[in-house]
C-alpha cells in the first residue's frame, strides 16, 4: 500500500520526508535534510505543513549574530505575528536568558529560524510559553481551557538545553522544558529538540521538549518532520500531552528518557512518573497518530519505553502507520513492545499499519 493511500485517513498534501524549500524573509532557504525521519514520506495534511513566511510581520536581528539576542526574541514573540531572523549568513546560537511568552490577544504567532537558528536554554531556561489560562498573558474568553486561539507555529528551529525546573503542584505550570502550551493550537515543523529537560519526578509532569495541555480539541497538535534526541523528564521525555490530539508525522525520536518513578497515580513512597520514554499522553476521547516516524533507544523506568497512551473515558485509538519502533525498553510494564496502550480502563493493542514494532 503506497503512502498516498493514507490521504483519506491522514489528509492530502505533498510528502514531507524530502528536503523542502521554505521562505524566510525575502530569500528561499533549503531546510536541513537531517531533520526528522530521513525515510519518512507519509503525506502531511495541509494544516500540518510549514507556514509561508515570505512577508514577515517582524524580523529579529539586523544581519549580525550580535543583533540576535534573547531580549529581541522575547519582544518579538510578545508582539506576535510572523517572525523571522536576520542574524547573518552563518548558523547562530541565541542563549535565552528569559522565556519568550505569547500574549493571548495574538491570533497567530509564527517563529521561523530558517534552519540556521538555535535557541539555547543553557540548562536553566524554558524557551517558549503560551497559556490561555494565565491572566498575566491576558484572558480572551470566559472559559480559557481548550479555547481555539492563539495558534503558535514553530518551524526550522533548534531548541537545545532548555529546562523547566517547575515541580508538579495543583497550580503550577509544570513540564515543557523547551515549549509549554496550555490552550489554543500548536504546530512544530522541521525543528530539532536536543538535551531539553523538565523536572525529574511527578506523576503527570512531562514534556522534556514539549508539553501541550488543555488544547483546542478541534485541531491536531502537529509534530511534522521533527527530531527529538537526548531529552529527559519525569514522563514523556520528548512530548507530553493532556487533553491534546497529537499527530506525529515523519519524525525521529532517539535516546529520550522518562526518568521519574512510581507511575501515575504515584505508588506509595515514590514521587511518581517514569512513563513514556518518547511520548506520554492522557485525557478523554482522543486519538494519537504516529505516521512515517522512527523511534529507537528511548526508555522509561515505568511504562511505555516509546509511547504511553491512556484514554480515561470516551474511547480513542493509538494508530501507528508506516513507522518503525525498535528497542524502546519499558522498565516495569507494557502491552506491546515499548508501548502501554489503555482505553476506557482496558489494556488494548494499537492499530498498526505497515509498521515494525519490536
TrEMBL record:
InterPro entries: Pectin_lyase_fold/virulence, POMP_repeat. Keywords: Cell outer membrane, Membrane, Secreted, Signal. Residues 1-17 form the signal peptide. It holds the Pfam family Chlam_PMP. GO terms for cellular component: cell outer membrane; extracellular region. Transmembrane segments: none annotated. This is Right-handed parallel beta-helix repeat-containing protein. Its main location: other. It is found in: Cell envelope; Cell outer membrane; Secreted.
